[in-house]
Amino acid sequence: MVELTEAQIDHLNDLICSKIESKTLRSEILDHCCCSIESLMEKGKSFDEACQEALCLLHPAGLSKIEMDVHLALNQLIPLIMKKTLFFSGIIATFAISAGLLFKFMKWPEGQLLMLIGNVFLLFSMIGLLIQLIRFPAAFKGISFKRTLIGTIAGLLISTGLIFKIMHWPSANIQFTLGMGLLIVFFLPIFFWEIYSKEILNKQAIR
Asked: pLDDT tens across 92-139, in order?
């Protein structure tokens, strides 16, 4: 079996390092290329020929394109994971808070516990949404970004205010009042104006 010399591996490593910035990706590409080159050299090809063919097989557009594709794939994957996390945590928060309100209204046991669980999940949902807003602002265009940011801050204040209230910690009323104020004065008017603009004004424009 053909094995690459240290000089050949160093040459290949220098070539990869000149095109790839990620150290983890460099290591993975180096291992893959070494195996491919050794296999091609067993078939009678020279090191230079095998090296060129292995890199071409790895990505026809070149090494730098590999890193771009990996970066693009990760950037698409992270928002998808966050959206799924927000979706499921939002469902749990809605269910737990609704059930908690029903239990408290009917004076059944565990109503306060359900409210606490629901608001903790609501808090995590708002934190996740805030991270998404900061890291991927382009996904929220124009007025939607402002509306989502205001709603997220309001949700954070409301959820923490209710958690503080349930746990009998100080400043609960201040947090809850600020959150509800943002929700009522800013978020809801912007939200309903967006709906009105999309539905009513667009229909009038079509006519």
From this structure: 999 999 999 999 999 998 999 999 999 999 999 899 888 878 876 766
Closest CA to 133 of 120, 146, 115: 146
CA distance 193 to 189: 6
Map tokens 């009105």 to a residue: 196
Residues 115, 118, 121, 126: is their CA dihedral positive or negative?
Answer: negative
Tokens at residue 24, please? 């983890």
pTM of the predicted model over 0.70? no
How does DSSP classify residue 109? T
Give me the phi and psi of 162, to 5 degrees please: -70, -40
DSSP state of 145: H
What residue segments make up the domains of the chain, in order of their start? 6-58, 74-206
User: How many residues does the structure list for the chain?
Assistant: 207
